[in-house]
Amino acid sequence: NGTLSLSAGQINGIENLVANSVTGLSNDNVVIIDGEGVQLNSKDKGVFGTDNAYVKVQTVNIINDIYEKKVRDFLKPILGENGMSIAVNTVVDFDVISSEETIYTPVIGENGIISWVERSGKTVNDDNSNKIPPVYNETSDTDTSDEASIENDENKISSSDSFSAEYLVNQLVRIIQDNGGNITDISVALIINTDELTDEKVEDYRELVAYSMGISKDKIAVSSAQFIKSEESYDISQPGGEGLFTGSLKDILERIGTTGIIIFASMLILLVSVFILVRTVLKMKKKVNKIMLTGKFGASEEKRSPTAPNPRQEDMPGEIVLNETREQALKRQIKEFSSSNPETVAQLLRVWMKEEENK
Fold first, then answer.
1. Are strands 97-105 and 114-125 parallel, antiparallel or unpaired?
2. Which residue among 3, 125, 200, 341 is least enclosed by CB atoms within 10 Å?
3. Cα(359)–Cα(357) distance, rounded to whole angstroms?
């Protein structure tokens, strides 16, 4: 079918299925052809060779991952998740080997099948001229028996008959086929996250890995090294992460705990609020004292000179009223501030009056 395509693994599976379903048939005698007459399992086809190599590499990687996970799970309770680095290398033999063995077994009892029978007879006379030459049977694996033996004393003549039979033996043909994929060698490299490791510890870890993998200690290499920490920022709650804080500040936060952090944050907010309030009060008090030093609030209204400007000018912005006096400008600013911030002005006046009473 031109719309569908089979992978190298599927083609190899079909080839093995056909070869194993017929007695005496090997993979070399199986041909898979598509609808366009193209041989799919050709060993000379470039695409198939590439796919086959990819399947082999993928198979080796899967085997390496399986053994690596096995060693990691075995050492995790001792070294932790990030306390080791493991590399496993396996050598796999993908050669397909076929062999044929023929075994012959003898027939048990007298129920075998007779292949051929040969009968023979002979007569012996004292007269050498009348002697009948004997007949000999030289066939191997035969059963020979005498049927009769007659002697004549008067004429000194004796005769005998014999026959030979050959039985068929049992024949067993055994076909052995190895499709490859056999692991021929395994080696393991283990790096432990520590600055120093004694020779005794190295030997202990080699022995543990050897027993867990089922291989010799000569195939295992163990070393120690301090791992490089990641420079990326991780959440502080994540195990093994660096977090937003590093160094001594992080250690302090871990020592004081969650309750200490909450108390520290509350005190910091309270101090900032008090600082802002005191600064605002001092600033407003300074401004009020400056206004009071320039004159009384209501004196300008009663002592206005005939040449003073129109009172309506007091309600006009300072940028428009060009001929207002300093006293009128201060009075206008105080009124504007009082109308826009009545609560602040009232609080300032209470503080100011309380300070005057204390004096």
1. unpaired
2. 3
3. 5
Look-up of token digits 């952090």: 261
pLDDT at 85: 92
Instruction: Judge whether 247 lies within some domain.
Output: no
CA distance 7 to 12: 9
Token pair of 45, please? 């086809």
Question: Looking at the DSSP assignment, which residues form a beta bridge with residue 100?
Answer: 175
Domain tally for the chain? 2
Within-domain flag for 204: no
Q: What is the pLDDT of residues 209-241, one digit of tens each?
A: 999 999 999 999 999 988 887 654 444 444 444
In a domain, 306, yes or no: yes
Residue 88, pLDDT above cutoff 90? yes
Residue 136: which residues within 8 A CB-CB, separation 6 or more?
120
Residue 260 structure tokens: 């200490």
Given 168, 183, 204, the domain boundary residue is 168
Query: Of 147, 168, 189, which closes a domain?
Result: 168
- Please spell the DSSP secondary structure of 146-172, one letter per residue: EEEEEEETTTTEEEEEEEEEEEPPEEE
| Average confidence (pLDDT) over 180-185 | 86
Given pLDDT bands bounded at 50, 70 and 90, which one contains residue 54? confident
Determine the structural domain holding residue 122 and report its residue range.
107-168
DSSP SS3 for 114: strand
Assigned domain for 123 exists: yes
Q: pLDDT, tens digit, for every residue of 257-293?
A: 677 677 777 788 888 888 888 888 788 777 777 766 6
d(CA 238, CA 314): 66
